[in-house]
Write a structure and sequence with these properties.
CATH topology of the largest domain: FAD/NAD(P)-binding domain
Strand content: 25-35%
Shape: elongated
Number of helices: 8
Number of strands: 18
Order of helices and strands: EHEHEEEEEHEHEHEHEEEEEEHEEH
Structural class: alpha/beta
CATH architecture of the largest domain: 3-Layer(bba) Sandwich
Distance between the termini: 12 Å
């Protein structure tokens, strides 16, 4: 019997395990594998105060795993385990998992469950291929969050990849950071193509705002990329021309919200798929009441998707669980 089962071994889930150990709580962090963590692929986090030069996602995860060694009498990580279902029996959660290397079943019984299951970004498919963009993202030339990395755009020539309102808003928000120029690359689509709105005037005004801010829209299809070796982001367009940028921001939104376990247990999600929580990160049901013993922390809850916010989520959830249930 565990005090807490933590589902997800990214930075936020690992930190929740560390906090649980500091409180002498028996916990297991189950992790599908490092490659499933959104943070694992971040070249540098620039918002961690104790590492002002930037810290890679891999280094952050390995550092947190090392820190768990200080609380190993109470907490451990089980790797390559996917939790596929959770049931509540009286006051106990019964979580069913699969250890993937051998396809064997794992069952965990705990008083509390903390979901740190995260979200998955939608990637630009260049020529229909995912692999084309990845080397640029891994080198920090393509970003997915302007709150995280918008400061890097100052004085630079920046591309925004996308064609919906999200792309327009991203381009306009980037102007706050004083880039030299911003272009929206729609990759062969018309700007706002397929957008549903009850107010067409909104899109017309948005176009005018882009024009007034000198944001150019390039609607040619992207055939390929170049410039990686020189530390730049270049695109080869269907019309034959090439454009070079210092960096790019993807504005394609999210591919997957890992909210299934919360829904199984009666949790409510919003229209974007985020799990709704209260101030202590307790998962809320359809009536707005907390689901007893169930928490959601990090990117999967309705928050700001920031690493330091996620650490705060972990603090609140573990401390509340300690006071309320343990």
């Amino acid at each position: 019997m565990l005090d807490i089962l933590i589902v997800g071994g990214g930075p936020v889930g690992l930190y929740a395990g560390f906090k649980a150990g500091l409180l002498n709580l028996r916990a297991i962090v189950v992790d599908k594998g490092r490659k499933w963590s959104r943070a694992y692929y971040v070249p540098k986090f620039h918002s961690i105060p104790f590492s002002p030069e930037g810290l890679s996602g891999r280094a952050l995860i390995e550092g947190l795993r090392k820190a768990l060694g200080n609380v190993k009498d109470f907490v451990r990580v089980e790797d390559f385990v996917a939790v596929e279902g959770i049931e509540r029996e009286a006051d106990i959660f019964k979580s069913r998992g699969v250890y993937h290397p051998t396809k064997t079943a794992r069952v965990y019984r705990s008083k509390v469950v903390i979901l740190a299951t995260g979200i998955t970004d939608r990637q630009p498919l260049i020529g229909g291929e995912l692999k084309t963009i990845l080397p640029y993202a891994n080198k920090g030339l393509v970003h997915y969050c302007i709150i995280c990395d918008g400061n890097l755009a100052r004085g630079q020539n920046v591309a925004v990849i996308g064609h919906e309102r999200r792309a327009a808003f991203t381009a306009l928000d980037l102007m706050h950071f004083q880039p030299r120029a911003v272009n929206i690359l729609t990759d062969g689509k018309k700007l706002f193509e397929g957008e549903l709105t009850e107010n067409p005037d909104e899109l017309r005004e948005l176009r005018k705002t882009l024009e007034s801010e000198s944001v150019k829209v390039v609607e040619e299809r992207i055939l390929g990329l170049f410039g990686l070796e020189a530390g730049g982001f270049g695109v080869k367009l269907a019309g034959g021309r090439e454009m070079s940028f210092d960096r790019a921001f993807s504005a394609l939104g999210l591919y997957k919200m890992n909210n299934e376990l919360a829904v199984q247990l009666g949790g409510k999600i919003n229209e974007e798929g985020y799990i709704l929580v209260d101030g202590d990160c307790r998962v809320l049901d359809e009536n707005g009441s907390p689901v007893p013993g169930l928490y959601a922390i990090g990117d999967i809850n309705s928050n700001w998707n920031q690493i330091m916010v996620g650490f705060g989520d972990a603090e609140r959830a573990v401390i509340h669980a300690f006071a309320e249930y343990l």
